[in-house]
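Tokens in:
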């Protein structure tokens, strides 16, 4: 058993500055210590995959991140680890608990299967791992070895934590118990265009490109959105988030949190935002004023054949506003979209929901640059701009 502060000291000494993840009773001391440690920016996530994506976005600015979650949530992180971290070669340090470890402490039945396969699942995903350090003096070499592997391979590394590895640590910042009081807002949509009369995604992306601030970054979701952005101009401030559907908003948040003052525009589709709708609450709570979240909604999974989504009946901007976004706009008018993109920054993140018609240009090209090349190119551009 080691003190939580000892492990965090080792992480800080190796340059880790962001801590994210989701809770587990095994992690309680470590999370409690991280929340109260001013050396780190602690931002919890609503989903393990969102935590990995947030850390990946922070990696663009050179920020090293620690991601902690229960092994039962490892399944939620599989997509971000395999479709985001792997192709983009983004190393993040994971602490994954080992609930239901064979031969370990008795646990709830839902942990039995994942307990048996946790380390094998990590290995299948190409994530190297070691046991979490549980003895005095073991934290520093464990973190150093993890970082050496991450640096040499560009891959995540996991420390698998057994029960009782970290000594108890009290939460220094308990949650507020004050009453919330009365909260109320109203939201009205006025969408007048029939679907065929709506703008194309290409036209919407042209407006987004035109409104980009000089130091602004454009993060585009997977599928046709990223491919159309690429077709309009393969600029160094673009990132095409191939795969990892639904992770673009968490990725953009990680970038925005670790690059204060830099405008970041996340461009998602309706299918992607619906897939990770819970992340709107995280962005509403933590998103800075420079973060703009644009949803280009054609009410379809356009990249996979045009199957309908349920977005037609969802007021996504109202959801975002209820989740804490400082400003939210819903429109099917290109002029309103352009005005919203150029509006002065509010007190927090802005959400723009733009309804468009389905379809994509014929012979739409795919990026000729690899995900890893796009990531490194954007890193260099961020460092120079």
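Residues out:
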């Amino acid at each position: 058993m080691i003190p939580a502060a000892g492990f965090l000291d080792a992480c800080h000494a190796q340059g880790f500055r962001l801590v994210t993840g989701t809770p587990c009773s095994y992690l309680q001391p470590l999370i409690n210590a991280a929340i109260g440690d001013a050396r780190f920016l602690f931002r919890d996530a609503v989903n393990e995959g969102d935590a990995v994506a947030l850390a990946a976005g922070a990696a663009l600015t050179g920020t090293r991140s620690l991601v902690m979650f229960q092994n039962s949530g490892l399944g939620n992180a599989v997509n971000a680890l395999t479709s985001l971290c792997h192709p983009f070669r983004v190393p993040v340090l994971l602490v994954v608990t080992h609930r239901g470890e064979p031969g370990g402490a008795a646990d709830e039945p839902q942990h039995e299967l994942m307990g048996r396969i946790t380390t094998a699942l990590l290995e299948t995903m190409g994530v190297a791992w070691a046991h979490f350090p549980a003895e005095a003096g073991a934290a520093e070499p464990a973190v150093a070895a993890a970082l050496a592997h991450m640096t040499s391979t560009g891959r995540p590394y996991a420390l698998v934590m057994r029960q009782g590895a970290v000594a108890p640590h009290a939460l220094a910042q308990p949650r507020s118990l004050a009453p919330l009081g009365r909260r109320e807002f109203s939201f009205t949509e006025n969408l007048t265009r029939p679907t065929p009369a709506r703008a194309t995604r290409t036209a919407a992306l042209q407006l987004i490109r035109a409104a980009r601030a000089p130091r602004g970054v454009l993060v585009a979701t997977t599928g046709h959105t990223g491919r159309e952005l690429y077709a309009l101009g393969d600029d160094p401030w673009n990132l095409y988030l191939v795969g990892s559907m639904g992770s673009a908003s968490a990725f953009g948040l990680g970038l925005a949190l670790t690059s204060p003052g830099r405008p970041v525009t996340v461009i998602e589709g309706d299918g992607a935002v619906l897939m990770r709708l819970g992340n709107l609450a995280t962005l509403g709570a933590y998103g800075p004023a420079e973060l703009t979240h644009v949803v280009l909604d054609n009410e379809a999974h356009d990249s996979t054949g045009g199957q309908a989504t349920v977005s037609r009946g969802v007021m996504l901007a109202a959801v975002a506003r209820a989740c804490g976004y400082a400003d939210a706009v819903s429109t099917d008018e290109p002029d309103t979209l352009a005005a919203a993109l150029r509006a002065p920054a509010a007190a927090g993140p802005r959400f723009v929901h733009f309804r468009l018609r389905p379809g994509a240009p014929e012979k739409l090209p795919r990026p000729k640059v690899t995900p890893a090349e796009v990531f490194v190119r954007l890193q260099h551009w961020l460092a120079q701009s």
